Amino acid sequence: MKHKSLQLLFLILFSSLILSVATGQVSQYVLEVRVPQASEKTALSLSVELTQNTQIEQVQLYYREFGATEYTRLEMLLTGRVAVATIPAKSVTPPFLEYYIEMKLADGTPATFPPVNPDGNPNKVEVKGVDPKDMEVRFLSPEPGETLAAEDLAVAISLMFASDAVDKQKTRIYFDGIDVSKEAILSDDVVLYSPKNFDKPLNLGSHSIKIELRDTVGGVYYTKQSDFNLSTAIAIEEVKSSLQYMGNAQLELRNEKVDVTNTTYQRGDVRLSGTYRFMGFGLDLHVTNEEKPDRQPQNRFLATLQAADYAKIQIGDAYPVFPSLFISGKRVRGVTGALTLGFFNVDVSYGKTERAIEGPLGGLITYNDSSAASSRPKETIFVQFGDRNTNPIGSLDTLKQIYRSYTNGTYDRKFIAVRPSFGSGENFQWGFTYIKAQDDTNSIIYGNYPRENFVAGTDVLFAFDNQKVKWTTQVAFSLENTDISGGNFTDDDFREFSTAGKTGADSIAGLKDADDLITLAKLGRNFIIVNPNMTPTDPMTGFPSLAFESELTLNYFNNFIRTLVFRRGKNYKSYGNEFVQTDIAGLNISDRIRLFDNRLMTSVSYETKWNNIQNENIKPVTTFNTLNSSITVYPGAKLPTFTLGYGFNTRKNPVELRLNMLVAGTDTTFASSKQDSLNYANEKTNRFFFATNYDFYMMARQSFNATVSIANKKDNSFNLRNQDNVSVAAALTTNYPKLPLQTTVAIIVSHNATYAALQDSVTKAYLTTTEKKPFDYQTVSLSARYRLLKDRLNLLATIAPSFGDFKRNLVQAGADFQVMENHYLVGQLDFINNPGKSNDLVASIVYRFTF
Questions:
Q1: What is the per-residue pLDDT for 67?
Q2: Which of 189, 204, 187 is nearest to 153 (CA)?
Q3: If you write DSSP's letter for every residue of 337-365 in order, what string do you get?
Q4: CA 357 to chain centre
Q5: Tens digits of per-residue pLDDT, 692-749?
Q6: I want to staple 27 with a disulfide (CB 3.0 to 4.6 A). Which of 113, 137, 183, 410 is the partner?
Q7: Contact status, residue 481 vs residue 536, Cβ threshold 8 Å
């Protein structure tokens, strides 16, 4: 016993020594971000556990894959204190993903995680790459995981895409671990094997096939295994013709005491999926007492019905998938469906993206007469004239006028998107997209600026050589009207608008402009309400609302090369993807190279882009250059893996400032009024990244990981807004061999500093001296999980104090108990000590049931 105690003490001391150099990120609003192991081309689900819920109205996830400079935004589903989102598989690529979280507080102000410089020094998730050799072997029959009748079993494995380093004649095939290569036949790059010659009876149930490729010198090149199930034809037919379903449900009761506010939440979730013959169905339901008439929908529901791979319809809250310029992560409550025939397909989404919320009324405002009332805010509504007894001989123009103020509400926003396409997408597809979004002006009384949006475009895909060559292009055109309350302008309205306040030659020129607008309006009225609030007014000159992207990828010789060309006009707007960056054009090129039998992977990308693509004289052209590079090493199963990365980004424009005048204060007008409007930029940020993972055995099974992230920005403009960010995080997880115990020790250290040039108190000129604002903190986290009652009961505990400029002490305790088969109870208690403030206490209990 003494010997074991010494071993345990040594292990703890060893962990402490390792972790003494680590760092990371904490937040006033975020307790934890849970990110599972990320694998290439596999959808990645993230969950964010918040410290409280009463102050947070919305949570957004911003992410970008390696080589991208723009973040993609996803609205996270906020359920109490937990927000979840899933990054699509196509964006999960090695060597890592970058992301940060943005939260909208109840007062409208934003908060981020990481809290300092999130877009310049975001969180990173390592992505495990797929071995490209895996694509060299294709199991044609049976398919992985397939269940088939024993009498129909025939094995066929394609080696068509095997490397030239493979000697196909030396291929070995194993059936249930037994070498059956002698009975197999290689014909036209396909390995064929008939289990009828197998000398053992083929029992019903699970079986395996393993293929072993050998190189030209006889060494093992690659092995791949596939599992399948055998049954009887009668049993398979019975299953296909019967109703099969599975699901789960949970009820949650949570109470949160945050500061002096107590809030109780009740929530219920149901998920159901199943099949009947060739039909599949599903149901997702989320109900919460957070559903309020003055908020956008908090309850969620989605019913799905699918006919094999040919047709699918969803009713409820769906997230339709269209080309990214058109729709990306937008929730549509209504009907969403797809017909997929291969030669012809159509995707449709129809419903609402916003629901009506009436604007709340405010106080009364009295104006002395109609002249004074003429300049009243638009957010007012007439109530009555003043009392005639106080002004008996006055006309209506001189009577006092009483108005009531209100806050703008939210209109119902109707949304429809249609995309017919031709081709399966395997080698070719050509699609056409139409989107129309319009606010319902009759849905609320107290509101202004109802909007409308029209988008149309096309996309095309060409692919060759099993998609090793792939070219995709999308082009989109948009129109937006920011106030449709007045309806369409007539021809006379355009003439009056274009000549207002003009005389002589200016009036004649105005009439000519009006004629041009009238011609465009006749066409535009077919798609959108046309009035002076429509943008762009002239969509043809310079194509300010045109956007396009064209991407070419090549996957040869262990290289994955990607080239992207893009241009998005400043007036491009799609209500299906409202966060796409506009007024930008550029080129992005990247390459990912695998070397030394996939033990080393290097990645590099470079992007240059610029704004002001309409060449407006009132602002400069700013150029952005970004480099990302990394090396990832996989030395072997018993050795640590690590990734080392470097990158930079620059932002610069050619504006010349008279800095000597600014510093000396001899040009105070320039210093106080022009410097910000010129948007002078001249900065460079260097970024370094290191990550390592190591699984080893030292008295127990250990898993160690650590990351170091450094970002330093040098601002050469008069603002001198330099930034220094250093973030290091490390954790050691131990699974004890003779105890049902798992522990994790982690330490977080973060150093952040922002700088800004001081200004002269009189002239407001920027000086060469700067003010430094540091923000440093450290967090130590100790957590444990203990299993009891043959793993039916799991006890969990965490202690995580934070020090420095951010102070917080977190204590968590929880239990997960399996009451009986398929029935579970989960309880959790969080105590958050906030020095100098009120403490927070959160308690929850969850009942789960699977069926």
A1: 78
A2: 204
A3: EEEE-SSSEEEEEEEEEE--BPPPEEEEE
A4: 27
A5: 999 888 888 899 999 999 999 999 888 888 999 999 999 999 999 889 999 999 999 9
A6: 113
A7: no
Task: Determine contact, residues 729/707, Cβ cutoff 8 Å.
Answer: yes
Q: Which domains does the chain have, with CATH numbers?
A: 18-128 (2.60.40.1930), 132-240 (2.60.40.1220), 361-406 (no CATH)
CA atoms 666, 671, 674, 680: torsion sign? positive
Per-residue pLDDT at 505: 73
C-alpha to C-alpha distances, 724 to 98, 99, 117, 728, nearest whole angstrom? 19, 19, 9, 13
In terms of phi and psi (left: phi > 0; alpha: psi -120 to 50; beta: otherwise), the region of 326 is: alpha
What's the Cα-to-Cα distance from 255 to each of 51, 56, 76, 795, 838, rounded to whole Å?
13, 16, 22, 21, 16
- Contact between residue 114 and residue 98 where contact means Cβ atoms under 8 Å apart: no
Residue in the structure block whose two tokens are 């080589």: 67
Of 77, 216, 210, give the one whose Cα is nearest residue 155: 210
DSSP secondary structure of 430-490: EEEEEEEEEE-TTS-SS-----EEEEEEEEEEEEETTTTEEEEEEEEEEEEES--TT-PPP
The CB-based long-range contact list for 764-773 (8 Å cut-off, 24+ gap) reads 764/668, 764/671, 764/672, 765/661, 765/662, 765/663, 765/664, 765/665, 765/667, 765/668, 765/671, 766/662, 766/663, 766/671, 766/675, 766/718, 766/719, 766/720, 767/663, 768/663, 768/720, 770/720, 770/722
Q: How many CB atoms lie within 10 A of CB 417?
A: 25
Mapped onto helix, strand or coil, the DSSP state of residue 674 is coil
- Whether the per-residue pLDDT at 200 is higher than 90: the answer is no
Residue 502 pLDDT > 80: no
Within 194-351, residue ranges assigned H as helices are 233-241
The residue type found at 121 is: N
Angle of CA points 225, 227, 228, to nearest 5°: 150
795 touches 785 (CB < 8 A): yes
Mean pLDDT of 423-452: 95
Residue 791: what residue type?
Answer: D
User: What are the C-alpha distances in Å from 833 to residues 51, 747, 796, 841?
Assistant: 11, 19, 19, 9
The answer to whether residues 839 and 833 touch, using CB atoms and an 8 Å cutoff, is yes
Instruction: Select from 620, 567, 562 the least CA-distant residue to 592.
Output: 562
| Distance, CA of 686 to CA of 690 (rounded, Å) | 14
The percent of residues in the chain predicted with pLDDT above 90, rounded, is 44
Give dist(CA 20, CA 245) in Å, integer: 51
CA atoms of 846 and 640, how far apart (whole Å)? 39
